[in-house]
Amino acid sequence: MSVVVSPGSWLCPPQWTGIVELDGAILVTVPNADLIEPVRGAVLSQIGQADVDLARLPLQLSALDVLGPATLAYLDGEEFAAADAHIEGESVSADHPDVRTLVASVDEQDADECGLDEITSEAFVIRRGGRVLAAAGYRSWLNMVAHMSILTAPGYRGRGLARLVASAAVADALAKDLLPQWRARPEPSRRVARALGFRELGSQINIHIRR
Asked: Of the residues 79, 117, 158, 178, which has the maximum number of CB atoms within 10 A of its CB?
């Protein structure tokens, strides 16, 4: 386990604590040095069990707010199970008005969870009657990782649309030699990732700690 002071860490919102557990290794970023030992002690208390249960940490650390925990899954190109495109899709710019309309149609929690407003790739979409029903894309991290973002309109979920648009986005990322990363909390999102060949290798939690 490594604990570092990083007020502007990419792992979490500014002045929060970010914790990532990945394949047996743990990286923690804290906003100031006073939190190093309290956070280290809380995380160490979880080590030695069968799994590191990040969900227990907010209570131990007197959290003011929490994001997660969420699973982290990754895809090897040789294990990519592309979806059968039984519905024709298209790609549009990330800031296309129809994509913005889709994001605006969901509540704040869904909008934050999907992260479509942060993608750097094109948006891969499926329409009906001109309306975008599902969209996916990714944000490139250091030209190495493609962090996936997917959203389906309420009322059209559970029909396989998320898998279709996500498959197109993943194919684009792999073609650019990027490693697809899928971060998810809801089980339906995790099922889509597994169907495409992603493997869950870790988890992440962000905690705003009372000082």
From this structure: 178
Quick one: DSSP state of residue 49?
A: B
**Pairs from 11-16 (Cβ < 8 Å, separation ≥ 24):** 11/204, 11/206, 12/67, 12/206, 12/207, 13/67, 13/206, 13/208, 15/208, 16/67, 16/206, 16/207, 16/208, 16/209
Which CB contacts under 8 angstroms, 24+ apart, belong to 99-104? Answer: 99/123, 99/125, 99/132, 99/135, 101/131, 101/132, 102/132, 102/133, 102/134, 102/135, 102/151, 102/153, 103/151
Say if CB 190 and CB 2 are below 8 A apart: no
Question: pLDDT tens for residues 159-194?
Answer: 999 999 999 999 999 999 999 999 998 899 999 999
DSSP state of 32: S
The answer to whether the beta carbons of residues 206 and 12 sit under 8 Å apart is: yes
The number of beta carbons lying within 10 Å of the beta carbon of residue 136 is 31
* Structure tokens belonging to residue 177: 């030699």
- What pLDDT is stored for residue 183 in this prediction? 94
Contact between 111 and 117 (Cβ < 8 Å): yes
